[in-house]
Design a protein that fits this description.
The chain is an alpha/beta fold and about 110 residues long. Helices cover about 30% and strands about 15% of the residues.
Length: about 110
Amino acid sequence: FGDLYSVGRIEVEGDLIANPIYSPTAVPHFVLCGELAHYSREDLKRLIEESGGKVQDKVSPETTYVVAGGDRSRYENDPNYKEALQLGLKVMGEQDLVDFLSSTSPHGNR
């Protein structure tokens, strides 16, 4: 993830934002919520882990990014989505995640 943590808050095109509560040595934590439309959870989990991140089952203060699948109706009632909003995290879509991981991974797109 390169120098992702050299700034306190990351804002990237695609409505992506880092949790402002972070540690420079922390591994990014991702939560997948909603019904994924284009990728399987297993595929996204593999991509995240191969890029050095971890996947959590639910949002917590450690969460760095939240990925919501499909259109808003597929995730707006998901407890993880609601918790992400309460913590001030913005949500990215599936393709935003893939693009982000491709751009931050030292190995490029997988």
